[in-house]
Amino acid sequence: MHIFGKILGGFFGFLFGNLFGALLGVFIGHQFDKARRLRDAGFNSGFGGGPSQAERQEEFFKAAFAVMGHLAKAKGQVTRQEIELASTMMDRMNLHGEQRRAAQDAFREGKGADFPLETVLQRVRISAGGRFDLMQFFLELQISAAFADGEIHPSERQVLHKVAKGLGFSSEQLEQRLRMQEAAFRFQHGGFGGHAGGGQSHQSGGSWQQASTADQLSDAYKVLGVDSSADAKAVKRAYRKLMNEHHPDKLMAKGLPPEMMNVAKEKAQEIQNAYDLIKKAKGF
């Protein structure tokens, strides 16, 4: 408790100005104590009292790959496929040299039996400065990594719930994002604009193509997190909200590591594609 300044100020104020001087001294002492409290809390990071922006970004980056490693280990033995999926994520971020080695080291650390998940997530919240957009990006990154093989194992889902809780998200919020990611996976691999299946649409006739387009449209609504019965106003509102939360430049300004910029751009493009498909189908 910082009260030394108030005591000292009140004492000397009383000596030189009786009651009025004591009150003035207490006020000045309070300002002194307040400044000390802010310094001790680390809010003067610009003056060397806390981690720099680059240090927070590095913390966020390493934690992301460490939690991916922990998630990969959730099913038991880490398979070659899971290692390849982690490598794919590194490729998406264009990681090479020292950056790639740092990601690999963090991934291996996360596979350890004594990996302190809760402590790491606390550090993520600190490095993200409590910003919702950054913590949401971190959670969605883990969901995307877990879903890279097309499905979520029950053990992975259990870990994801722990990750969500550690970042301050509810189980309902996680499940909503899982549904959105599942739809996004189908939407991406189905191809945008009715190109799913290549020549198969010609062999099976127009009925297959219509079914494929209908499925894509259904997934597009889920990518935006709205019901297929939503009107144009609701769809636009959901689209704008998601784009505001996932805009790459805004995320970078809030502290997203530059290595993750490409992934942020992919997510924003995914949202844009889903919205464009709905807009085209519904004519607004």
From TrEMBL:
Q: Which domain of life is it from?
A: Bacteria
The segment annotated Disordered runs over 191-211
Write down the membrane topology. Answer: Single-pass type III membrane protein
Question: Which protein are we looking at?
Answer: Co-chaperone protein DjlA
Give the organism the record lists.
Vibrio nereis
Asked if Glycoprotein is a keyword of the record, the answer is no
CDD domains, sorted: DnaJ (cd06257), terB_like_DjlA (cd07316)
HAMAP family associated with the record: DjlA
> What gene does the UniProt entry assign to this protein?
djlA
